[in-house]
Write a structure and sequence with these properties.
Number of strands: 12
Number of helices: 12
Enzyme class: oxidoreductase
Strand order of the largest sheet: 4-3-6-1-2-5
CATH topology of the largest domain: Globin-like
Largest sheet: 6 strands, antiparallel
Distance between the termini: 29 Å
CATH class of the largest domain: Mainly Alpha
Radius of gyration: 23 Å
Pfam families: Globin (PF00042), NAD_binding_1 (PF00175)
InterPro entries: FAD-bd_FR_type, Flavoprot_Pyr_Nucl_cyt_Rdtase, FNR_nucleotide-bd, Globin, Globin-like_sf, Globin/Proto, Hmp, OxRdtase_FAD/NAD-bd
Order of helices and strands: HHHHHHHEEEEEHEEHEHEEHEHE
Catalytic activity: 2 nitric oxide + NADH + 2 O2 = 2 nitrate + NAD(+) + H(+); 2 nitric oxide + NADPH + 2 O2 = 2 nitrate + NADP(+) + H(+)
Organism: Cladophialophora psammophila CBS 110553
Length: 437
Amino acid sequence: MLNSTQVPAPVRGDEPDGLPAVKPSRSPPAQRPELSLEHQEIVKSTAPVLAEHGTAITSHFYKRMLGNHPELRNIFNSAHQSTGTQPAALASAVWAYAANIDNLGALTSAVSRIAHKHVSLGVTPEQYPIVGENLLASIKEVLGDAINQPILDAWAAAYQQLADIFIDVERDLYGKAEHSPGGWTGWRKFRVARKVPESDEIVSFYLEPVDGGPLPAFKPGQYISVRVFLPELGVYQPRQYSLSDTDDGNHFRISVKRDAGISPAPPGRVSNILHENLPEGAELDVSNPFGDFFLDVAGSDEPVVLISGGVGLTPMLSMLGTLVERAPSRPVVFVHAVRNGKVHAMKDYLARIMAENPQVSRAIYYEETSDGEREGVDYDFVGRIVLEDIKDKVLLPGASYYLCGPIPFMRLHRKALEDLGVPPERIHTEVFGSGVA
């Protein structure tokens, strides 16, 4: 993890081999204090009251913590801070934990997703006490006399339990990354070997390690974090991008949509820097691949249905390419929605896949069409995806379903699949931002 004392000016090449000077602690975890039944009852009984003021508490928390520890600004997404999505997401997560404090198994998937993101950002065990101290202080400072010492003690014990869970999961992820062939922890310098426009909005970046060393294997659907310096903020900003290519051991490919911003959301600072200011030959910092949204290619012949919207096709391209290379007997349905042909990325690649692999079928939706675009060639349907209308194509016995796109898109189609009788455990979603699909 790089903090402000290890991140000087944005001078490239001053970190040996692109790796951080400080790695996450590998020391054994301290003895976990037992969360008493009394603590659990206090947390559950006070959670609704705190939830009413959740965003106020977490907004205060971020301002307080980042004011006291400005080095942490190198971790947190500044855009999510300014729009309020980060405080709202944290509030939702904290109260979900409180509601399930006596049934932590219900949080397994959320813990896994968040832990993968944490390790991709370099979060360390030493930072958890900072978060806890500022969160508890924020609860007291926002709610005042409504919070007494027994309530604070109960929430402190609950927070410690949650922190220990994350630290244990993340220690395991760090260890696997560090000891995998070609793997690493922290940041590693990569060079933009190629930069390829894929549509009016999306550009692919082919990234190769500056040190010339091997790359770790990754699973189709996983992502990397990339980090760039923002002079106007004076901090580094990391972002996660799905790996959009198959694993060849020589390069990583990410395909990045330029985020122009739609009011009140500001333009995407990092995506615009990547598009405008990162030419071929430039260097940037990259994390080891992580993420628990992935397709297990080996050991199954079950059908796969890939459903994406917009730039959500990027992990699906990795899945699709891997399936046709390594599991050509598995039927695949590729369902994709996009505004129009100008922003339809990699359609020539998909056409080639279709021509060479009869086990792959598709349903491409354009919201609007233009002269020269051909139905059945460039697209298959006009409008938005309605799974009920193509159920004969997508409802395959034993199929697994993978969804990626904007959160409302994933919620809509998850519900549609469940309404069509697909078991929830066969539906998998990817969420990068502050939200739950």
